[in-house]
Specification:
0% of the residues lie in helices and 56% in strands. It is mostly beta strands.
Length: 112
């Protein structure tokens, strides 16, 4: 498993910890990211719009705030998820004092 710490992901705040479950190559082009991600307090993945793919966040621990396509903010709890479909945008922020841990899966959109 490849592990990586990245700063200012999608122009977000702080450092984001990635534990990659499968590489894009191992997913044979069907998906581009499958990782367990940790956000320390105050950290975030900045707002971004998906083009040609969608992304699901499944919360393992903590209570992050999700910006859903600049239409609403949602607080998710462990066991909940939110899917951002192709053409829509989102961000995830840890506004709490405990770590947020979630699974992220980027799914390639079917070709027409």
């Amino acid at each position: 498993m490849r592990i990586e710490d990245r700063s200012n992901v999608q122009n977000g705040n702080g450092t984001v910890h990635f534990e990659y479950i499968l590489s894009a190559e191992e997913m044979h082009g069907y998906n581009t990211l499958y990782a367990r991600i940790t956000l320390k307090p105050g950290c975030s993945v900045g707002y971004h719009v998906h083009q040609g793919n969608g992304e699901d966040y499944f919360i393992l621990s903590g209570t992050p705030t999700i910006n859903d396509n600049n239409e609403r903010e949602v607080i998710l709890h462990p066991g909940e998820h939110m899917f951002c479909s192709d053409g829509r945008g989102h961000s995830i922020t840890n506004n709490t004092q405990e770590d947020v841990v979630f699974m992220a899966l980027i799914v390639t959109s079917p070709k027409a």
